[in-house]
Amino acid sequence: MSVLIVGSTALDSIKTPKAENPRLLGGSASHAAVAASFFGPVNLVGVVGDDFPQRYIRLYERHGIDLEGLQVLPGKTFHWSGEYELNMNNRRTLKTELGVFETFTPTLPAAYQTTPFVLLANIAPALQHHVLDQMRRPRFVVADTMDLWLKVALQDLLKLVKRLDGFVLNDSEAQQLTGEDNVFRALKKIHRLGPRYVVIKQGSHGSILSGPHGLFLCPAYPLRQVVDPTGAGDSFVGGMMGYLAATKGPIDRHIRRAMTYGSVVASFCCEGFGLQRTTRVTRAQIDRRVKELERLTRF
Amino acid sequence: MSVLIVGSTALDSIKTPKAENPRLLGGSASHAAVAASFFGPVNLVGVVGDDFPQRYIRLYERHGIDLEGLQVLPGKTFHWSGEYELNMNNRRTLKTELGVFETFTPTLPAAYQTTPFVLLANIAPALQHHVLDQMRRPRFVVADTMDLWLKVALQDLLKLVKRLDGFVLNDSEAQQLTGEDNVFRALKKIHRLGPRYVVIKQGSHGSILSGPHGLFLCPAYPLRQVVDPTGAGDSFVGGMMGYLAATKGPIDRHIRRAMTYGSVVASFCCEGFGLQRTTRVTRAQIDRRVKELERLTRF
Lengths: 299, 299
What we know:
homodimer, alpha/beta, 4-stranded mixed β-sheet, 10-stranded mixed β-sheet
């Protein structure tokens, strides 16, 4: 089955202590869509300006990503610049130029409205609502978010969370949202906001699922070298949704393995700038790391 | 088989935002010995003053811990006071009174010198050396340490590490020792110092083993409430060594499960002040949490 992914489609200029990379393909939807594309068909909803490099369009196409929902508007593509500190955990935003994103209204092509799996990747909650309003009885809807929306659009976000099957956020966002520094107490509080599945991402420490069948402690793949963690969280949730959409049977039977697949795609994402490493990976390489994670956690 | 445990035997006065508990039984050897005692016989090597409460002697005895190696000397027992902040991660030492510990020389009873498993729990590296000097061909020697010794006794510690089969330390100590903020690169560097097995503890994120058969990502048991994390690391390594000593066959076949048992004992330790919760736990409760961890990590 297909997965519909809406989010930001952007150009990222990323500085780390070791290198500087201007105008890479980035944005939550780009990372999530490429990650999901390893498992099955993806419908992408986003907006870019007329400065958007043709080679990035070809990159989406090479991954079999359907672009009927990608609007190309006169103006500039959303451009984010950021800088990482030496330990790769602290990120500082240098510049955010919204460009065509400022007035973006995601309108779904008719063919997209019945996509069974929906990933509302990180983007303003009002836009996530707007996409969901256009869907006809989706089977499984998951949203990701970021700290910014907890600050400037909390009411929108809380309303959205009620409409979700699954909600994904990172540990500091979970603490910000619930006031709980204990991740397991935070999970409990987030369930009360609506979703049956809650996933808290913990970066290099993996992630935790709380669902109808209890908890799952999902490992992160051990990386000796992190080149650029931008998009790792989007790759995680994209890989997870792509895998779920490609798998028959109940969500509960597959969600743990789906998260592990997401975790592995995220590990590849961290090994290169932007999407440089992810776009060179094969499904066989992904499968190998998932098998390795199985061996690394068995006791 | 037996495990010999040397380390500190202390009185701990622990303050948290919610409570204050004076003169609890504490010290690295006390926590490790109680943790190991769930699995088999333990020989304890340590020193206490003549102010050491008789009820703590009885507590050791109830756990079947052999006390021939516990010296009782005229003077005061080592007394540590510390305070935890609200999130239980930051600890501040308020007072350290060494007492009889100041001049402690661990002399092993003859019967202890052939103990096959040796745990050099956190204590000055010179004392760890001294204990090891008295051992006759132990089968498996593991040491734990703390940041203090990396600062004030690094050369002693590096010499000790050469003599070990296994070395256990936490993530910030590993970074301090190797200058590596990546835990997997740190593991590699620590192997070069000597030990075949290196375990890096990551608190509530679990621990990582690097051994002859590669890595193992050991989960932490999910706790909704941490009452007092003092001694959790000692409980972890004590439980691990106790389980290993009680198990037939090669170390490699059992060390992953041993770590998981250590992790579970540490989880109980965190649920009460000092040893209050650990000393009320049964082997059956420990087994149940290990089984639960198996379910929580399977995918």
